Input
Amino acid sequence: MTSDADQRRPAVPARRDRVPLGIAFMLGATLMFAASSAISKWQVASFSFAEVLFFRALASLATCAVLILPRNGLNVFRTQRLGAHVSRNLTQGVAQSLIILALSLMPLAGAMAINFSTPLFATLFAALWLHEKVGRARGFALVIGFIGVLVVASPGADSFRLGALFAIGNAVLYGSVTTAVRGLTATESAETLTIYQMVLLVIFFALAMPLFGFVWPDRSDLTAMLINGVFNGIGQYWWTRALSLAPPSAVGPFYYFSLVWAMLLGFFFWGDIPTITLLAGSAIVVGSGLYLLWHEAGKPKPVSAD
Output
């Protein structure tokens, strides 16, 4: 029997995979994320990470509101899984804080390369939380991928290694976030996921900002912070759309284009030249992630009971 609340709640359309469109959204998201990360790396040298993330989240919220509200209205806020949204975005807020700290201590491409271990941690969390069987193939990919992370993280000065620890922490948390997002898309639209993300992150960083310092930015810095938020908002919306349009095994490989943009931006703005160790470690991490995605794509899909 359907309750009154269920009748009032807008129905979420049945999931229908649209792989080419999902890939296009993922490619666009990687470019937006790389540009946002580059601006954040520049800003965190002068402002606290909480302030950088607050203005980024605020501008991202405004961007997503412009993209979403005219088509969906306030119905986009209707959900029966508010607790899941809060827990997911609390985790994402901590993860974003860690990656910004990592960017302040290490090259852009290095932080992005370590971030690519997210699928490995997502697989590990699926085994621990959902009791999914790891198996030899997945176990092999996990071990090789972690070796790649160690290769990227180990060389260089102490600041590089400290930054790598922050980047690894971000990857661990994003592994759980990615799993949560895909699970939520079964009942929540991409628009609902995105708007709750932006609202909750604004609140999260507004509360954190007094603890970590605030300096009012001048006009040029404020403009950069707002542009950062616009790029991030578009990227977050496109990333969520990609995951809602196609399975991770289809769109996931294209997320690795972020490393290409990160290397180009790092060289152009900071003169960072990728080292052999960075390239080798990145290749190992990316290769293990791609193998995981290929392995998951080859699994037989469960037959629907409907």
User: Anything to note?
Assistant: The CA atoms of residues 32 and 235 lie 5 Å apart. The chain has 13 helices and no strands. Residues 5-12, 301-306 have pLDDT under 50 and may be disordered. Residues 158-184 form the longest helix (27 residues).
